[in-house]
Amino acid sequence: MSKDKIIRAAIEVFSENGYHRASMDEIALRAQVAKGTLYYNFPGKSQLFKTIVKEGFENIMQRTQADLNAPLPIKEQILRIIRHHLDLFLESRHFSHIVFNELSNGIEQDVLEELKQLRREHLHFLASILETAKCEENLLRDVDANLAAASIIGTLESTCNYYLSHPNAYSRDDLERYVFTIITQGLFISID
Amino acid sequence: MSKDKIIRAAIEVFSENGYHRASMDEIALRAQVAKGTLYYNFPGKSQLFKTIVKEGFENIMQRTQADLNAPLPIKEQILRIIRHHLDLFLESRHFSHIVFNELSNGIEQDVLEELKQLRREHLHFLASILETAKCEENLLRDVDANLAAASIIGTLESTCNYYLSHPNAYSRDDLERYVFTIITQGLFISID
Amino acid sequence: MSKDKIIRAAIEVFSENGYHRASMDEIALRAQVAKGTLYYNFPGKSQLFKTIVKEGFENIMQRTQADLNAPLPIKEQILRIIRHHLDLFLESRHFSHIVFNELSNGIEQDVLEELKQLRREHLHFLASILETAKCEENLLRDVDANLAAASIIGTLESTCNYYLSHPNAYSRDDLERYVFTIITQGLFISID
Amino acid sequence: MSKDKIIRAAIEVFSENGYHRASMDEIALRAQVAKGTLYYNFPGKSQLFKTIVKEGFENIMQRTQADLNAPLPIKEQILRIIRHHLDLFLESRHFSHIVFNELSNGIEQDVLEELKQLRREHLHFLASILETAKCEENLLRDVDANLAAASIIGTLESTCNYYLSHPNAYSRDDLERYVFTIITQGLFISID
DNA sequence: CATGAATGAGAGTTCATTCAT
DNA sequence: CATGAATGAACTCTCATTCAT
């Protein structure tokens, strides 16, 4: 089906070039459809972009949620959150960069607003997991859950970035462990 | 002098619109110089952008360095690092976003390479401060200093972002304290 | 039947948007048929347009003719011509604008030629009524009947236009009377 | 100068093709400038069109006004109005068609509104000449001056149209005389 | 030093038309 | 009879860059 081919191609092209340098011509070429077919299936470039980002957010939230269904200690929950996000970040580096960072300027105002909303929802999704854990287990430091969630995302994004430009510095497992340590040792209550 | 006027205007325009939506016309207009003057002073758009990002990095590194000249405990050093970065992030939100995030795709390859190098240098600058502290004071957890630095930057960037879209949630001082807690409680050794 | 639905929808859309801005998509949407159905029933956009214009001309000529079947004094005949044209012009303003004015440029050459022919026929139809009256009653000034007919159409078109953009200036009846006066006092012989 | 070349070319192209079929490429080609030069000098297609129509209206109003400076009997004034409009209509047939008819649909709403305003001003200009004459000389029939002006324009437009498609029917002088008769015998008071 | 008119490659988008079903 | 997904040529418009002055 054309729609799927287009989305697959668009992910590629947006990932490789960023929103602005990605051209509809290139996407059509990559999807092996005519340019008009893009506009038959999507209202325009920004809407196509939105669709993709939306799917990305939903994808990672679903994957995370599915894995947290069973009752798990918060430590394990955070580990899994980190693992899923690392999967996304490392498997499709540019795509995740788009999802988490390219939402700043230079996109049509209305679509931008929707995308920011999506990002907020993702953050609240993580925050709610933390909040639940904080209440139930009393293991988390008394920090605003939203800020904590923001910190997790920022740390993941930034460390992955570093990891990817230093491919031989440590293994994927090391990275996971390091990040877990950095995050949790600040989130778990410790005797000072 | 024209060069200064151009740089000031360019910071504004790049900040407000991102790299691609910023136009040389707009920059010339804001700088109150003719379009040709831009090309008299800078080889092109990407070079102008590079100049600005470079100045941004140098600025924050200088400000931080200057404040760390006196011998200070690591806790105080980190607090000051956070404070300077919050200053930069909150005072010129979009500019810092450019500096820390817009360096991904869609910029001319050669300039992009230089910018990534700058970002690496900034990260290493922070990492070296941490490294020194780790050796001298043995207060820091045994985590790769570069990853720790990346985590700090990511956390700052991400939490500021949240803070700015929820202006009334907490005060600037609260934010500073929260971020400090999140970062340090993971970086300082604690008895588990 | 699809054909009728299409024609009704097409009249609406052409009227509201003019030939070029009217899109086949919009017509199909309004007619509640699939786009392909348009091309099943009509060879293309210009032919569909031609069909509509043709029906418009035939409609007004029939209405006028029907009303002039009984032998009437020329004064009454002209009044009825005016009345029928005002009906058409005022009831479906844009449609009549299309019929009388949009036949100039920018339509496929072959269809355009046919449409101009239709306009000529309409003009000759009016002219023949005037000509008959001139011979039989000797009440009309010695002016070329075709020019006189052209003048009537031009006056109707132009005054309706004015009337429609000044809705409260005079009543429909006033307009009819004024136009009648303007036209006839130039067409009837008067002692100078 | 580029601006002049563009306007000259645009008049040609708009006249030959109507607003929608006229392409900016064609105008640039005809003007022997690059496409970008069009947009350097005019904000867009509709604005370019507006400029041209505006100049057309101003041109004919100026020419007419200049010729009516000396105090003339109304009969002579109307003759001159007719003459100037015939000049415009016959010399640049398509241009005048644009000016007087292509202002209906399918042009950007804001520009369309301005153009309609121009047409209204032109009509009021003619109406004011008639009004003055009516008051001063008491020679004009008691018909609303605006409708009378509309009638003149409509008659001129429509008869010229006919004249141009029947080039050999009568001479330009005949046309002028006929039109003058048609118009004035309805405007001058006559004993019925 | 500085200008700004001019450029042209390339972008996003529209839409009449086709054709396999 | 009717459909609607797919097409691709043509369109308007943007903008970094150049160069004669």
Automatic annotation (TrEMBL), chains A, B, C, D:
Regions recorded as binding DNA: 23-42
Ranges in coiled-coil conformation: none
DNA-binding keyword on record: yes
Domain HTH tetR-type as annotated: residue spans: 1-60
Superkingdom of the source species: Bacteria
UniProt entry tagged with the keyword DNA-binding: yes
Swiss-Prot/TrEMBL keywords: DNA-binding
Protein name: TetR/AcrR family transcriptional regulator
